[in-house]
Amino acid sequence: MTRIALLLCLLLLACGAEPVPAPAANVPPERIGTAVFAGGCFWCTEADFDEVPGVIDAVSGYTGGRSRNPTYEQVSAGGTGHYEAVRVRYDRARVSYAALARHFFRTVDPTDAGGQFCDRGESYRTALFVSSPEERREAEAAKAEADRALEAPVVTPILDHAPFYEAERYHQDYKRRNPIRYTYYRTRCGRDARLRELWGATG
What we know:
Layout: H1 3-15, E1 32-39, H2 42-50, E2 55-63, H3 72-77, E3 83-91, H4 97-105, E4 115-116, E5 119-120, E6 126-130, H5 133-149, E7 158-160, E8 164-166, H6 174-177, H7 179-189, H8 191-199
Parallel strand pairs: 6-7
Antiparallel strand pairs: 1-3, 1-6, 2-3, 2-8, 4-5
Helix pairs in contact: 4-5
């Protein structure tokens, strides 16, 4: 490791930031899959998928609505029909779509149709956006498993793939770039407390 690289790593650790994930340069294109999930605040959904082995990257954005090239202000104001969502690229040799769908359900409250945790409104609804009959079958299986595990019915829909618009740069990699603000928001929003209450040991 060069002296500059070592200093950079020490600086990242001192600031509480995580190392930048390795790129997908060594993953053959035919092994790369793409999946889209809406799990409330995309900062948190992105961060939750970044932790999954086999995930190459996760990008925050908007999907499922009527407006083209929407902005955060437009989506959060309501009326566009868009969800805050995350586009996940993954290595099919290391993780399956079925495993990602199961992971997704355990990082959200799929019994809540009005938003997620402290975030309310249409842009914070949950959904899985599928692009093939196989994905739909696997998403339905993950949803059925979640429904059996919970006391309340699962209301998260499984929707057809729709155009995905990347969110503004300041939303990307938010946990890595703003670890203190991210942790404060996630804690104050009650996300992890509710997940523990909801899923307990079944998560």
